[in-house]
Amino acid sequence: MRYFPHTKEDIQQMLEVIGADSLESLFSCIPEECLMNHEMNLPFAMSEWELNHHMDDLSAGMAVSPGYRIFIGAGRYDHYIPATVSSLKMRSEFLTAYTPYQPEISQGTLQAIYEYQSLAARLMGVDVVTASHYDGATAFAEALLMAVRKTGLRRVAVSRLVHPLYRRVARTYLEPAGIEIKELPMLESGLTDISAMDGSKDFAAVAIQSPNFLGCIEDLKKAGEKTHEIGALFIAGFTEAIAYGVLKNPGSLGADIVFGEGQSLGIPMAFGGPGLGMLGATSEHTRNLPGRLIGKTMDIDGRPGFVLTLATREQHIRREKATSNICTNNSHCALTAAIYMASLGRSGFRELASLNHDKAAYLRKQFASHGFRLPFDSLFFNEFVVEFPEGEAIYERLLDKKIVPGLSLFSYYPELSNCYLICVTETTSKDDMDMLIREAIS
Amino acid sequence: MRYFPHTKEDIQQMLEVIGADSLESLFSCIPEECLMNHEMNLPFAMSEWELNHHMDDLSAGMAVSPGYRIFIGAGRYDHYIPATVSSLKMRSEFLTAYTPYQPEISQGTLQAIYEYQSLAARLMGVDVVTASHYDGATAFAEALLMAVRKTGLRRVAVSRLVHPLYRRVARTYLEPAGIEIKELPMLESGLTDISAMDGSKDFAAVAIQSPNFLGCIEDLKKAGEKTHEIGALFIAGFTEAIAYGVLKNPGSLGADIVFGEGQSLGIPMAFGGPGLGMLGATSEHTRNLPGRLIGKTMDIDGRPGFVLTLATREQHIRREKATSNICTNNSHCALTAAIYMASLGRSGFRELASLNHDKAAYLRKQFASHGFRLPFDSLFFNEFVVEFPEGEAIYERLLDKKIVPGLSLFSYYPELSNCYLICVTETTSKDDMDMLIREAIS
Amino acid sequence: MNESLGASGLILNEKLLWEKGKKGRCGFSIPKSDVPSSPLHPDLTGDGPDFPELSEVDVVRHYTRLSTWNFGVDTGMYPLGSCTMKYSPKTNERQAGIPGFSSSHPLLPAALCQGALRLMAELEIFLAEITGMDAVSLQPGAGAHGELAGILIVHAFLKQRGLSRSRIIIPDTAHGTNPASAALCGYKPVSVKSNPEGILAPEDIAAVMDEDTAGIMLTNPNTIGLFEDNIAEIAEIVHAKGGLVYADGANMNAVMGIVDMGRIGVDVLHLNLHKTFSSPHGGGGPGSGPVCVKKHLEPFLPIPRIILKDDGKFEFSEDFPDSVGKLLTFHGHFGVMVRAYSYILSMGADGLKTASRLAVLNANYLKERLKDTFHLAYDRPCMHESVFSDRNQQATKISTLDIAKRLMDYGYHPPTIYFPLVVPGALMIEPTETESKEDLDQFVYAMKQIAEEAAKTPGVLKEAPVRCKVRRLDEATAARKPCLTG
Amino acid sequence: MNESLGASGLILNEKLLWEKGKKGRCGFSIPKSDVPSSPLHPDLTGDGPDFPELSEVDVVRHYTRLSTWNFGVDTGMYPLGSCTMKYSPKTNERQAGIPGFSSSHPLLPAALCQGALRLMAELEIFLAEITGMDAVSLQPGAGAHGELAGILIVHAFLKQRGLSRSRIIIPDTAHGTNPASAALCGYKPVSVKSNPEGILAPEDIAAVMDEDTAGIMLTNPNTIGLFEDNIAEIAEIVHAKGGLVYADGANMNAVMGIVDMGRIGVDVLHLNLHKTFSSPHGGGGPGSGPVCVKKHLEPFLPIPRIILKDDGKFEFSEDFPDSVGKLLTFHGHFGVMVRAYSYILSMGADGLKTASRLAVLNANYLKERLKDTFHLAYDRPCMHESVFSDRNQQATKISTLDIAKRLMDYGYHPPTIYFPLVVPGALMIEPTETESKEDLDQFVYAMKQIAEEAAKTPGVLKEAPVRCKVRRLDEATAARKPCLTG
Ligand SMILES: Cc1ncc(COP(=O)(O)O)c(C=O)c1O
Ligand SMILES: Cc1ncc(COP(=O)(O)O)c(C=O)c1O
Fold first, then answer.
1. In angstroms, what CA-CA distances link A329 with A93, A241, A335, C486?
2. pLDDT band at residue D3, thresholds of 50, 70 and 90?
């Protein structure tokens, strides 16, 4: 096997040094009843070439562009990824290192993640951002737990328009600990009914997503004010980071804690993972943050350098009292996002975001002008909801044309039967959209 | 444009330092009549994404496996390339450096090419190998020129079974200099008729390829002895380097100078280039070699290191008296070949070579047992000639089945009408071969 | 051999991104617009995040330079104990990069993503086979996440039986994520000391296991690199009191095809695909921490789960009412799964078993070669790693930290230090199976050199490292006056 | 800015492959055989080349470590004069790697390789448009090979007219490949001095041009970085005597879209795709050296040529009886062509013109910033590069070599040195357009520091480099007692 450097002679010599007479005997300490009493039943080892062949075959069963035109977003977004991002992130010094416990030999990762934290903070409008979490949903759950720790209150309010899957992950995290989650209803407009909080109290936090799951841009400012009125922490988040190329960032609109998914920032969709959990907050929450943080410092010669810091929040020091159980995070995805953000720069990022909106606006107009019902008229970024007339089986017909025209909302919002969440990014051409419309009305 | 780092302000400030008032004015020294008096007529600049799209479309018009089954060799061979080779050669320190003129800052390239020279010398059975040439054909031409320089004689003999395209390149190089090329005829067996040299004299060299263009393994030993009898230098070469995983190498059989194509050593076929021109010789020819050579030496602290050496042979020192005009060579291909050879090792290389022969032998047997005529019965490596019965348009029929069953020899050897040169490597599966036969006889 | 692997070479300094950028540059190819512009309402819009602006070459050089300040497994030996820093095969990256996988959307209709579903379904079966467990969920995003999944399952199982318990047994050798994960489910960790042999004694477990205890979270092989010989008996004790046995499988690399986790009484276990199954560690992740259970716990696995329908097609199903729910937005770290799947297919059963044997061979070889020089915490045959300490260096006040820093100058990434906590000044060395005998011998040479320096010229160690881009960093100030963004 | 870009960091030593390997290892996945074995006759077979045997991880670490001893354009500024070390865009590597291109066989039937044929046909048209020439062959494998093609064309043209001439005019500033290429066709170079302004004077050409002279090989812009102002007049002189004008276009990066080579009397010219058109230099190649000609020389271009048939399909044609023949086995370095083609499509006409303007801007900026410190050989507005010398450093016996070596410590690849030969101790600096003003300013800072060191502490330069893996190497012994294999 090409991954094994051991020759027969090596093994013999090493066994002699150890004083064992065979490889098996190295396990003689293991009680008989613990041993596996059969050979593992796994496929016969494949050569590199058989594997390539096998994987090409498997992947052929996947619908991806350009073969398919896919208009689904809902938490994963198809954005262009520059060749530079793909090649730089593969530098083996980045890829095959681990958590930078030993800073002197890990300055590459450390500076890169410190820069990620800084750019992410500018994107989200907060003072501090963690080195990464698994994804937007766990970042959301950790945000709620932060608020609970901070306030000592065990109730949180969450907009029903936060990504339904994020809310389910939050439930998984919060329920066993007995933390109660109140749901804020949605208005006709497709926005969160923040008034539902009127007069309520003893809430650790109120959490809102904008653009929300239906693509509508929430009034974070108002929600933040309401939330602060009732003495709760205001948590705001996003699934589409590109939106904040044009939108005012959550921090500037009053969010105390900001969570989000960073997959849009140069990370491939990869069937849903790995993505990038982004989590930040105002500085008073710094020591309450879960997960890794990189800090700037100096070496004994006064040269600037970077280290993992505030470790006393973490499991390897605080164990059960830690602010989270997270250890390995999604560092390589944070690196990727940093390269991506650095490549775009402010102007590029803004232009790209506008383009996403322009394209979505175009398609939405097309639907409107062809008489489709658009349930919500709030402002949106690059996703919106359209209703396909009852019984016309438009969705199925489009599938046959290798078009996936969006995500059916029925299972998430039963009241929205026949409604589809449609996403458009800079990768969607006008031709793609015109073709979608053509087929939809044909 | 993302490749330009200049901001408007940068340009302004720089122009001021220079004392020019515009970018145009930097060219004011150029006489009016030399200027281009129109804008270049080129396609409008494409974005990275338009380019990807365009190139994917263009490449779609190419027949490659697995979509097609291709049985052509004839100087370019489809061998497996490990993912390690592809990723290591892309390390930007290798890829974006140039000729290692400054050794202290180029030790990576230098050691790698020194190792290439060493492994190539072991493969070819010679004392010294150059850092690379453009391809097998120019290496061949340079080999002939070496012999002419060395002997002062202006006639060379070349087997008609040396790759026809190599012979044409040699003619291009030799004819203007008035060097005469005698062609050695082929025997019924598909081997070179070395007896044609009997009694001839004043030849600088006799050149033979083995396996020859028809895939037949020549008797290099005998040819070498004959050649030396008439006082000429014996030049031997190959187009399929993998053959020397099993065959005795040319050096051990008496070759003074060895040329070859190294594309098979981990270099993609890439529609014919770049490949790897391999050229080596016995030590008495060292100072007569064309092109770069890397040598081992020491630094002033006695640490081992590597440098470009024997530069007095080269154009940048000797100008018109240089042993060649070559400057930029195919260094990155030599690096690739070195990684490939190191990955295989002796046993792996031998096993791979045997597999190539086994597969070719299988297919040849299949043709035989299905009554196809096999014009030549000499021993072969991974290529052989088969005749498709007159008028049956087997070739065309197979093309329709997305099978390219070999190379028509007619244009190269008019006497071999209806004959095809067929190549099989480790990438050809038994199924591919059985399918070829099935379709050929259907 | 008599020359140090580590040397000094030319690297380039590099500023911070925002010190480097300048307004007016862009390293991204902005697509041309083919639609009319429709600006958002100005009340909503800002002028974009304050990102530095760089050209493409600026970006390429920035990250190329940064990378040269790092050390990865591709650079050299990285014996970071408990992290299984084995070589990550390049072909796995090729597979993960296939557009059909890397560009696929997680919410595709089942009919349009059969390839990914089959891959995941098969990987679940492979992992069940390798561990001896019955069912697997690939959803957890890393080891700690797998622990959380496991403890949630324990919690849900007990709850269903109307049991609400407040405590859970966790050995003092456990990784910090164990108590932290338990705490997330509201369990209070009960710490149990390992015995003089470095493993758990049944009587110690019996002494604390009771009806208010949900069970035990143990690591096997444990973090000292020893096999928990008494696991079967311990499991009986825990089960007898209605508790469950959770095994942290982060060290599975020692026992693939050798130990049957299902047979020894483990009810639930997590794996680290980024350790045992060779996916690259990425500078700290992403990982993947599948959770494996015995039949009786299968109903509680996270959803969605992949099911094979009668028509031979796969699909996701949510129809598991007892499930603990979802742990990630979608299906887990699929990209990491592709790598682990490729690894298992490349290795086969024999290959995986051999990997474990050679990993244990390498660890024992290092243990034997080094134990006369460095104090060995537990002098017993070890599994994948062994734990030394700085006890022999006390005389000259040389600490484990000094030894670790000096190793960098010799061209090695240091081992895990000061863990496990039960060994003061621990040096936890896990070579993995992909280090050759020569590599190990050279490492031994470096360690012995360092021991000699520690004795004769301790100052050299206190000054170390001297070859890296920076020297020792002031971590105290970093924590006291945190500077976390620029 | 006030800190040197160069620094010292940790790198790893690495043995030679055969010192590292050990029998019994293999880093390659040998395919399983699905056919019966049929051994070759023992008389023919040996036991395989004596290659070292390494595992995959051995190979990966070997080349990863070696790479860290190298310096590329992605690492930093590489102002190697005459070599146009501009940034090589990453997207070009993506394009060249598309299987349809990288895995295609050169002898496919035309119907099965239209993509490659179209790409090459379009690239020929682009290059003709950029140079102002009429027809192009992409076959030559590098610049020198393009020169050979060009001279062969000159030779064939004259021969067809029954002229056999023995000499060719080559300026003393010419690159070494020029006379070497001419010699391959049997031409004897006649050297002509450039005038005090660093360019050719018509009268000097008139003085040597005669009926036995095939023509002139000049480089424009020339190797001093100056435009040959008198080119038109010189061309007339040469043409008047029945000779041809060959232009070495290696420096085309200065004048894309600005100078019309066709208009100024050039009959034949070569380009370096690996310079002007951004394909990576690969540690010394592969390159590509297309030869471009005016109409009257088109019949002599190398074959096969690509022709567009009436049915809109492309094919190769050999039907050019006057052709000089073939220069490479197949169609040239296609992989390099893909990169150049991608570059041209990415840039467009404006982009290419801007590239030339910024390349000239950068060169003149450096010239102005440095000329007070280092002696400038020709103080005139320059094109893509300028040539300095060590004259100002004579006092302390500091040579160009010392300056070059010291630059490494500051984090730069040195410029081209001791070329062109007409400038004693030449320092030939070509920044290219992809260096930013900050990069240039930092380079100027380094150069001025070095000048100061040269004056005050010359020993520092004599000792340089001190940061690289090795210090100055003994090239004399290397040449006297060559050790070329191990
Ligand atoms: C024994 C043990 N358990 C659990 C973990 C946590 O795994 P992860 O870092 O993937 O969350 C680790 C890894 O650090 C470990 O070594
Ligand atoms: C002016 C000039 N002419 C010709 C050449 C030769 O080009 P190549 O090295 O590609 O053969 C070079 C490059 O070194 C050059 O600078």
1. 18, 19, 12, 22
2. confident
Angle D334-370/B8-18 helices, nearest 10 degrees? 50
Contact between chains at B49 and A82 (C-beta distance less than 8 A):
no
Beta carbons within 8 Å of C159's beta carbon, 6+ residues apart? none
Angle between helices A8-18 and C437-456 (to 10 degrees): 40
Structure tokens, A236: 């705001």
Q: What Å distances lie between residue D152 and A292, B136, C249, D159, D171, CA to CA? A: 66, 20, 71, 10, 19
Q: Confirm if B48 and C27 have CB atoms less than 8 A apart.
A: no
**Per-residue pLDDT, C1:** 41
Strand partners, C227: none
Q: Which of A268, A264, A221 is nearest to A383 (CA)?
A: A264
Element containing residue A152 per DSSP (H, E): none
Q: What is the pLDDT of residue D1?
A: 41
Å between C68 CA and nearest CA of chain B:
11
Give the per-residue pLDDT at C253: 98
| A427 shares contact with chain B (CB less than 8 Å) | yes
pLDDT in tens, A181-194: 999 999 999 999 99
Residue length of chain D: 486
* Whether residue A31 has pLDDT greater than 90: yes
Ligand 2 pocket check for D170: Cβ under 6 Å: no
Q: Are D245 and D234 in contact (CB under 8 A)?
A: yes
Measured between CA atoms, how close is C12 to chain D, in angstroms? 5
Report whether D277 contacts D250 (CB < 8 A).
no
Q: What CA–CA distance (Å, rounded) separates B69 from B78?
A: 11
Nearest-by-Cβ selection for B248 from D45, D189, D468: D45
* Residue whose token pair is 């095939």: D214
Which residues in chain B touch residue A53, judged by CB atoms under 8 angstroms apart? 66
Distance CA A341, CA A265 (A): 7
Q: Do D68 and C409 touch (CB under 8 A)?
A: no
Which residues of chain D make contact with C467, given a CB cutoff of 8 A?
A: 8-10
Nearby residues of B168 by Cβ (< 8 Å), 6 or more positions away: B137, D325, D326
Q: Which two tokens stand for residue B173?
A: 């190089």
| Distance (Å) of CA D412 to CA B112, B371, D79, D415, D459 | 22, 67, 8, 9, 20
**How confident is the model over B259-283, as pLDDT tens digits?**
999 999 999 999 999 999 999 999 9
Mean pLDDT of C90-104: 98
The chain C residue lying nearest A307, using CA atoms, is C475
Task: Please give the Cα distance from D181 to D190 (Å, whole number).
Answer: 13
- What digits encode the pLDDT tens for the residues B81-120? 999 999 999 999 999 999 999 999 999 999 999 999 999 9
Q: Which residue of D has its CA nearest to B323?
A: D180
Mean pLDDT across D329-344: 98
The contacts found for A46-51 with CB under 8 angstroms, 24 or more apart, are A46/C345, A46/C346, A46/C348, A47/D29, A47/D30, A47/D31, A47/D32, A48/B80, A48/B82, A48/B83, A48/C91, A48/C346, A48/D29, A49/B80, A49/B427, A49/D29, A49/D31, A50/D31, A50/D32, A51/C91, A51/C95, A51/C342, A51/C345, A51/C346
The ligand minimizing its distance to the Cα of B316 is: 2
Task: Report how far residue D361's alpha carbon sits from residue D365's, in angstroms, rounded to the nearest whole number.
Answer: 6
ipTM exceeding cut-off 0.90 for this assembly:
yes
Question: pLDDT, tens digit, for every residue of D425-439?
Answer: 999 999 999 999 999
User: Are B87 and C30 inside 8 Å of each other by CB?
Assistant: no
At position B360, the amino acid (one-letter code) is: A
Do the Cβ atoms of D56 and C20 come within 8 Å? no
pLDDT at D324: 97
- Answer whether B407 touches D (CB < 8 Å): yes
Q: Name residue, tokens 């070559």.
A: B326
For ligand 2, whether the C-beta of D142 sits within 6 Å is: yes
